[in-house]
Amino acid sequence: MPTIQPALDGTVPEQTKARRRAEDYETWLAQVWPKYIAAAATGRTFTCFEVADEHKLPEPPDSAHHWGRLMTLLRDEGFIRTAGWACSSRPTVNHSGVRTWRGTAAARRQQAAA
Prior knowledge:
Layout: H1 25-42, E1 45-46, H2 48-54, H3 63-76, E2 80-87, E3 97-103, H4 105-113
Antiparallel strand pairs: 1-3, 2-3
């Protein structure tokens, strides 16, 4: 367990909950896929992190590559399309530019049929 450094006034800072990490890619994909399908069905514009943060989704085994792979799979399956660019709200990336996504008409129709 990591140690917590007290502040100069003696108070202990509130611990932030670290996101849990999935054991393997397939398990992680099965957990996050439905949340992104639901986001696509709304037709709203979103970033990958916004959906993950909203639903407190676990981190994949390889964060540097698996998030992008997820979005590529969703695009290739016809659920999302690129919508533009925005500044990321992910705390660790200093407002870097990220792609935004929007659900396709097919994703909205599939959700309506379900």
